[in-house]
Amino acid sequence: MNLPTADDYLPSHGDPCYAVRHYDLTLHYAVEGNRLDGDASLSVEVLEPTRRLVLDLSHLKAEKVRLKGAKLRRFGSRLHRLVIDLAEEVASGTELTLDVRYSGQPRPLIARHLGDAGWEELTDGVIVAAQPHGAPTWFPCNDRPDDKASYRLEITCTAGYTVVSNGKQTKHKRGGSTETWVFEQAEPMATYLATVQIGRYVDREVGRPASGLPLRIAAPADLPDAQHRAGFGRQHEMVDAYESLFGPYPFAGYTVVVTGDDLEIPLESQALSTFGRNLVGDDWEQERLIAHELSHQWFGNAVTLRWWRDIWLHEGFACYSEWLWSERSGRRPAAEHAASHHARLVEKKQDLLLADPGPADMFDDRVYKRGALTLHTLRVAAGDEAFFELLRSWVATFSGRSVTTEDFLAHASSLTRLDATSLLAPWLYERAVPPLP
């Protein structure tokens, strides 16, 4: 029997017949030896009649499964999936509680076209970079971006390490050779945005936004103060700027982790971003990355795509947010960035369909830049007042939900009184790069 796929961009991930409303994860992790033991309790709602639930779980062994609300027939592992057969069909609307005990040595999951993602050992610690397919490397889940849930995470780790995860830290307890940390993420979160960061980190001083939003930076003790201040000295000003442009910050706080290792790119998670120490500095390339990851809290984390083909709703918005920060901070205006990147785009191969780029090109830089230019086109046509009111309304209306390109076009048309579909169709649905307005 074939196993389900919820999104064609991510084969063999996700089961559309049910949704997880809450994850309660209790983990024990030994840094030396990379050993993970976990208990996961999932609150599940059945969306369509089924005799089977399929969870995503990679490289880890499910040792015990318990089910409340229906009778379990059997469970077994198959191709990075945990297949749970029920004794009889359950109806739509049925609420279940699924408990899974599992263990093993977590490692990244490698997928065709997408590379590797998930739980990865650092020189001294751990990083979880789950976008788009790495969540199953550390907990059993329904790995689809439109299935957003609340989370509670309790992790007991080797003493001497700091654990950072999504949401609000509610507990930290020291034992003999271990320390236990508890985090709660109340706002709905997609599986790929869940993360655990483990390292020998200390909290660094950081400015406070006008709204009073709690900001935290966890970084290695040997990161020079000058480098830290140069990189994150204006992050609180970015929050101020984005709150004025996009509306209130959508979560209880924002944390940045700076790893002791160098990283190729920064990593997005809900209410948290991760940077390698090599990505912290005061030049524009590094400053724009800080602005980019922060903006994802509005565009990607609060408002999340329903299908991976709509990735421009994350990356195009975050790229345009870089240009908006440049404009607000006294650097180049967004129009100059748009002109510069448009000139580069027309020189590149024009075979990308922004509204459906395909899994191989999902994170192509052209998606980022063409997506930003799509928004700039809308801004020019609508005018600043209507455009920024649209962005604030988009976040306020769809926060906690999953959306599509069609949702955005309909919302833009209703808010600006433009025919956004006709206006933006050349950018979204045609391969040739349109003229810049």
Automatic annotation (TrEMBL):
It comes from the Bacteria. One of its GO terms (molecular function) is zinc ion binding. Its EC number is 3.4.11.2. Residues 237-427 form the Peptidase M1 membrane alanine aminopeptidase domain. Its cofactor is Zn(2+). Coiled coil: none annotated. Residues 21-193 form the Aminopeptidase N-like N-terminal domain. It catalyses: Release of an N-terminal amino acid, Xaa-|-Yaa- from a peptide, amide or arylamide. Xaa is preferably Ala, but may be most amino acids including Pro (slow action). When a terminal hydrophobic residue is followed by a prolyl residue, the two may be released as an intact Xaa-Pro dipeptide. CDD domains: M1_APN_like (cd09603). GO terms for cellular component: cytoplasm; extracellular space; membrane. GO terms for biological process: peptide catabolic process; proteolysis. Keywords: Aminopeptidase, Hydrolase, Metal-binding, Metalloprotease, Protease, Zinc. It is an enzyme of class 3 (hydrolase). Pfam families: Peptidase_M1, Peptidase_M1_N. Belongs to the peptidase M1 family. This is Aminopeptidase N. It comes from Nocardioides acrostichi.
